[in-house]
Amino acid sequence: MSLDLIPENDLRAVLRPHRVDPEHFEAAVRQRLQSLQTQSASDPLVYLSPFVKAAAAFLPLEVLAGCQAVPTVTKAAPAGGFYKLLSYLAFPAISLFVLLGATVFSFLKIRSIQAQGTANLGDQQATQESIQDWWRQHRLGASIVFAVSLILMLLGASSLLFLFYLISFGLLLFVLSSFAKIGIGNRDIVGRTCGMGLMFLGQATASVPIGGQEIHFLDQSLISVIFLPGVLFLVPFAGYGWRASAIQSYQPRPIPRWYWVFFAAFVLLQLGLVGWIWSLGRMPLQLRLGICAILVFTALVPAGGMLLSRWIMKRGQWTAIQRTPVIFMLMFLIPLMAWNGRTLLWPATPQRIKQYVESFDHARFSSASWASWEILARWTIDAGLQPDLSKPLRLLNAEIAGIQNPFVLSSAMRTGLITPDQLSQLKNYDEKRRQLFSRSPGLQPLAVHVEQYDWVVRTAVLKNDLSPTERDLLEQSLLATLDNPLDDKYVTLEKADHAVQLLSAIGRPIDRERYRSQIHGLLRAFHHTSGGWGRVNGGFRSYKSINAGDPKATAHAVQLMEVFGIPDDLNILWVRSFLRPGKILDQQWIAAATLARLNAIPTARFPTLFDYLYYERTILAAIALVGLCLYATFSSPVPRPPSPDSQPCPS
Amino acid sequence: MDLTTFINAYRGPLIGLLASWGAPWADAVEIAQDSFAEAWLHRESCRGDWRDTEIFGRWLRGVAKNQFRNWSRSRRRRTTRLADLSAASLEQVPALEDAAPTEQIEALREAIERLSVEQRQVVFMHYLEDTSVQEIATLLDTSLKTVEGRLYQARLSLRRLLTEKHTAAQIGMLLLCL
Question: Among all residues of chain A, which has the CA nearest to that of B43?
Fold first, then answer.
């Protein structure tokens, strides 16, 4: 095959007619450039998209521009239709993020300038007035935004709320970055705006119980742990001012006396807390070390902050640093993050549950504390963790030597804590045994008082003190509890679970097939998936009439599921959601042990990756929001010193 | 680096690129002028050091793409308004010809129109003002070898297209003679 190519000269000849005169071309480019520059100087918003222009109608441009904008900048032309709708969507973020930040920082700046006794106060006061004007003009809209946010939080619709803010904030950042490109606003302003908004959301999510009405598998307090590091990244923007005027006029001030007093008091308080935490013998060593380290670190923050500010001042840069808000922020943020991230820092691992079981040497709430401990002790034994029960045994000995609470004895019996040689010390055994069998079978006494007589039956079994007839009688009595459980208004899952266990103890295990439908009906009736504010849904009620899930009742429900299986129409993801980390005190251990029991049931459905992505959308949204904030801040241009012909703020 | 240097480096290939995207030559010149002005005005927004010819070339390409998109949208609106004008008539903007095209040149022009987009693109960009392959590679965000390969393939395709055309004409003549 010949490689006969078209001559290049022919190609040049074909295109020659389309060539342009270089000089004419350049002249035309320069003419266009001049025209663009003229337009840009007279109206900086001219090249922005219609949406940005529409959103600008809502923004206090004097605040964003730092009073350096030419007057025409403030004439943001509102657009219509779709763009206007989009700008309304940005309004919540504007009112929440921009104005909060602007109000706080403007106030701080005025205080700082007043303290220095320098000029420039007029500019800041004018900024403050422009913010107040904005609030006056948009009072209704801003009130609606705050009310809707609060209502959505109270209703527990946190996903919807976060989606709302994510969209709104995304639009706001688009507007801010567009403005930053044309010189209105800068990295400082975007950083402060983002930092303030994240601070608000971080605190709101830390203080309001969110996500209780929805399925989640992770501790929802982690949302605030996601927001607050974002604030930490943006803390420098809260601490200094880039404005040349502020830097020039700044005179370093000595650290005020009240600061030293506060610092000393704070350090003493932290050290006191360290001593108190260290004295809590029941708390695991690692946990104590972790908390004490955080407290010591927090105590050192003010000293570190003072040293840092002195160093910065010596360098002659950023002389307008506001050390106080930065230090206060750090003092506040670090413990808050540690507390809300406790499920990550100190998760409820099997070893920790075992430590808790072993450290049980004080029943603060008597039988209630024993009931909680029993759930955990039985799980550690079933899981083969072989806990050392010497401390609980000492506590039991004290109980046996004392009043011998029947509920405590029952709990101790069920965990196998009472040894055969202790049986003779149970002083009420003979009398209770007599009461148990002296009643008419028709009255079904045990059905009502199974918890009280549990220890009596188990003692009789251990002593081999039950005849076959008595066993029959007990079996009938216990089965009567399970025959029509929903007819009994005092029935509880705990009672049903203990009845099933007691049947096994007397050598008459329950017929699972026969009682499956009754137990499943009971589980369905006690399952709680909708409730009011502040409750975490998905658990099981302790009583039918109570409209809230309970960790202990849920533990008994899962133990019943181990025997009878999981009801087909019961969404186990709800139960997983209820048992998610985030509970406090002994409830966190009960939830973790119950979840471990649930995971061991072969038919228990595990959440898929899609489930995680769908149900943890709030956390994903929070991550996206923080990422968006950091990107918007660090991609914005650094502030430039004002030009000599810049306009002062209108006062 | 000043504006003149950038214009001299990228004028030809940019006009060629815009023409290859479908803009008539006269419009391509206008869009290229707008693109240079816009890219220069907002050069500080360019990622990286705009003084680097390559970085500015990539920035210019992005700006030109947006300008072309805007031009396309406005042309669509114009076409809708002027429904009586056919698309073809809008395309037929007279070129600045200084001589009547010969039959061979006219055949070559038609053949160029039949090239693939990628091949037509490099032909326009390279031969309009004899621009170096480096600037073309920068504007197309591709390698020198790729541009050279496309140019070679384009010339080869053009030869084949012209040969096929002649062969078909010769067969027609023979058939007429018979």
Answer: A181
The three-state secondary structure class of A55 is helix
Please check whether residue A408 is in contact with residue A366, taking contact to mean a CB–CB distance below 8 angstroms: yes
Say how far apart CA B75 and CA A383 lie, in whole Å: 74
Q: How many residues does chain A have?
A: 651
Which pLDDT band holds residue A315 (cuts at 50, 70, 90)? low
B121's tokens: 């693109």
| A15 has a pLDDT exceeding 50 | yes
Q: Does A28 touch chain B (CB under 8 A)?
A: yes
The answer to whether the Cα torsion of A86, A88, A92, A95 is positive or negative is: positive
DSSP state of B99: S
CB atoms near residue B90 (< 10 Å): 14
pLDDT in tens, A469-528: 888 888 888 888 788 677 777 788 998 999 999 999 999 999 999 999 999 999 999 998
CB contact under 8 A, B108 and A20: no
Contact yes or no for A569/A538 (Cβ under 8 A): no
Q: Both tokens of residue B13?
A: 């290939």
Place of tokens 């804590």: A417
The Cα B103–Cα B97 span in angstroms is: 15
- Residue with token string 């055969």: A420
Q: Which of A19, A30, A32 sits opposite B129 (nearest CB)?
A: A19
What pLDDT sits at residue A232? 83
Residues of chain A positioned with their CB less than 8 A from the CB of B132: none
The residues near A232 (Cβ < 8 Å, ≥ 6 apart) are: A330, A333
Rg (CA), chain A: 35
CB neighbours of residue A153 within 10 Å: 17
Question: Could you give phi then psi for residue A543, rounded to 5 degrees?
Answer: -130, 155
What letter represents residue A133's amino acid?
D
More confident residue, A33 or A42: A33
Using the predicted structure, report yes or no on whether residue A156 has a pLDDT greater than 80. Answer: no
Question: Residues of A with CB below 8 A from B92's CB?
Answer: none
User: A152 with A601: CB under 8 angstroms?
Assistant: no
B33:A29 CB<8 A: yes
**What's the pTM?**
0.63
Task: Give the total residue count for chain B.
Answer: 178
Contact A436, A445 (CB under 8 A): yes
Q: Which two tokens mark B164?
A: 């096929």
Please indicate whether residue B81 or residue B109 has the higher confidence score (pLDDT): B109
Averaged pLDDT, A72-84: 50
Tell me what pLDDT residue A230 has.
87
What angle, 0 to 180 degrees and rounded to 10, lies between the N-to-C axes of helices A390-401 and A406-414?
150
**Of A648, A635, A620, which Cα lies nearest the Cα of A217?**
A620
Contact (CB, 8 A) for A306 and A255: yes
Cα separations in angstroms, A11 against A649, B106, B126: 62, 11, 10
Shortest CB distance from B41 goes to which of A4, A6, A37? A37
Q: Which helix (H) or strand (E) holds A331?
A: helix A323-340
For residues A289 and B106, give the distance between their C-alpha atoms in angstroms, rounded to a whole number: 87
Q: Is the pLDDT of residue A353 over 90?
A: yes
Work out the mean pLDDT of chain A and round it to a whole number.
77
A6 contacts B162? CB cut-off 8 A: yes
Beta-ladder partners of A550: A540
Question: How far is residue B165 from each of residues A2, A13, B134, B159, B162, measured CA to CA in Å?
Answer: 18, 20, 33, 10, 5
Six token digits for residue A495: 């009672």
Residue B167: pLDDT band (50, 70, 90) is: low
Catalogue the E-assigned strands of A203-246.
none
* Cα angle, residue A441 at apex, residues A435 and A446 outer, rounded to 5°: 55
